[in-house]
Structure formats: structure tokens, C-alpha cells
Amino acid sequence: MRKYILKRILISIVILFFVGFIIYALMRCLPTSYIENMARQKSMQPNSKSYEEWMAQLTAMYNMDKGIIPGYFAWLGQAFRGEFGDSWFYTVPVLEKFNETVWLSFIMGGIVLIFEIIIAIPLGIVAATKQYSTSDYVISVIALAGISLPTFFFASLLKLVFSVKLGWFDLFGLVGRNYNLLSASGQFWDKAKHLVLPIVTLVVISIGGLMRYTRTNMLEVLNADYIRTARAKGLSERKVIYNHAFRNTLIPLVTIIGGSLPGLFSGALITETLYAIPGIGYTSYQAMIAGDIPFSMFYLVFLSILTLAGNLIADILYAVVDPRVRIS
Asked: Are 194 and 262 contained in the same domain?
């Protein structure tokens, strides 16, 4: 197992190198440029240098005067030293802005993942064990609705009902207008209240896929020969389902859950933007549309690392879930 993990890590490093280069090349080709806007603003100041002179100075400052390949290796050398530069859009160090926003998205993603598991997997098992029953049809409709609903439509519907019509929640933002006047516990509950609708949105649109996946794999396992043998030996239906069938259903589920781990840190770009929640997804979106190459580069490479790590964790969990799975 140790040799396998080391081999996978080395392969992941090679993949990450080429993925990072592709991301850097795409960032260099963005249609908008913060440097051009900054040079234009500075050239309009009294007694300032010309636009061309400012462009030459700023592009040299940010290594934008080099080609894509030399520029990438210059960025890579700085990244190894933990130097990702300053965000052009937020005018603070990239790591500082990232650390300021990522934990809010992590909290939201963790809560959503917990609710997704405790809702989708049991309902998927119920739908499989009661195939073609009323419960199965209701759960299938809910799952298909969750898969089909666009995020922006469902979020807008929730805001219309619970914010505009009922007035239970604010339309957007993380804190209310009286946040600074509240006590410490009051500020905590104020933030928690503002996160209710975004979390509900993410849970509803995410449970459908896991629910259907659980149902499909559970049905496949329930039709296996060893399940019929377990029933023929007189085992209770509960033991057949949870001690035999569900354990084998966990193997493909680990792939889905392991692949969702990067989402804990990546943020929900659309949802955070719709609700104006200052998480890492909303922050990175603002940086990208502003042509903020330093922050966008760090964020996208960070997502690549999380994806590779999630795949590695999923492969390792195979052996944990099923003792028959061993990696030589």
C-alpha cells in the first residue's frame, strides 16, 4: 500500500505540472486585463507617464513581458517558495485573501456534505428495497427534480418565497444591517440565519444524484447470488440489507463521496454569487472577471490539487470498505 500511495503521489505531481501549465496559458489569454485598466487609470493622472510606459513597467513587474513558458516557470519557482504574489483585484496577498474566504465555504460545504449523506443514502436504500412501490416513485421524483432543477432557478424560487413573500430571511449577504449591534451569540445566529437558504439550495440540488446512484447500485447488489443465499439461510431482511448488501454498495459510493471532498474547499460559485455570500467561490468569480491572474492561478491550481487528492483518498478507501480489495 505504501508503494502504491507513493507511486500515485508522483503521478499526481506530473499531472499537476501539466495542468498548472494549461491553467497558466488560459489565464494569460483572458480577454480582460487588470494591467491594462491600471495602466489606463495611472496614465490619466496629472503629470503622469503615458499609457505605453505604464504598460511596459507593469508587465515587467508581473512577469507578463515574458513568453507563456518562461512566465509559467517563473510563477512555478515563486509557488515553490510559497509566494503567490498580490491579488490585482483585491490588492492584498493572494494567500491572505484565500485564507479569509475559504473557511466560510468549507463550513458550508461540510454541512451540505453531511446532510447529503444522511438524506440521500438512506432514501436510496429505501427506494431500492421497495422497488416499484409508492415510496420508490416518490423518492425517484424527488431525485429527478433535484438533478433537473437549475441552481439559479431554485435559489430564485427560495428567495421569492422565503425572503420576498414571507420575509423570514434576507435576500442576500452574510450579515444583517444590525449585525454590529448584536452580542457575540447574536452575531453567530445572524450569520447562521443568512446561510440557511444557500445550504438548502446546495443540499436539494446535490442529493438527487447520490440518491439515484445509491438506488441503482443497491438494486444490482440485491439481485446477486450471495444475497439470495443469505436469505435462503434464514437471515433477517435487516441483516441481509445492512450487513451484506449495503457493505458492497459502499464501494461505488466511496468514489462519489471521495470525489466530492474537493467541493468542501472549492466553494459553490453560482450559489455564493446568487446569495452574495463572500466565500471562496464568489471571491474567485470576482477575481476572474476582473482579470486577476495571480488569484485565479492559485485558486485553479488549488482545485486541481484537491481533485487529485480526492481521487487518491477514494482509491485508498476501497481497501478500507472492502477487505477483498487489496492493492499489490
From this structure: yes
DSSP 175: S
141 burial (CB, 10 Å; 0-12 / 13-18 / 19+) is exposed
Confidence of residue 279 (pLDDT cuts 50, 70, 90): confident
With respect to residue 153, please indicate whether it lies within any of the assigned structural domains.
yes
Task: Tell me the C-alpha distance between 127 and 4, whole Å.
Answer: 37
CA–CA separation, 47 and 24 (whole Å): 36
Pair (223, 304) in one structural domain: yes
Distance CA 313, CA 311 (A): 5
The three-state secondary structure class of 93 is strand
8-state DSSP, 172: S
Structural domain boundaries enclosing 134: 101-321
Q: Which residues pair with 93 in a beta bridge?
A: 86
Residues 283 and 313 in one domain: yes
Least confident of 96-110, 133-147, 221-235: 221-235
Same domain, residue pair 143 and 187: yes
pTM of the entire structure?
A: 0.78
86 forms beta bridges with 93
183 Cβ neighbours under 8 A, 6+ residues apart: none
What is the domain-level CATH number for residue 143?
1.10.3720.10
Cell for 295? 488569484
Average pLDDT over residues 54-59: 77
Other Cβ atoms within 10 Å of 170 Cβ, number? 18
Q: Is 122 in the same domain as 263?
A: yes
Give the pLDDT confidence score for residue 18 in this predicted structure. Answer: 92
- Answer yes or no: do 40 and 116 share one domain: no
- In total, how many domains does the chain have? 2
Distances (CA, A) of 216 to 140, 205, 238: 11, 19, 19
Q: Which of 54, 79, 75, 78 is nearest to 66 (CA)?
A: 75
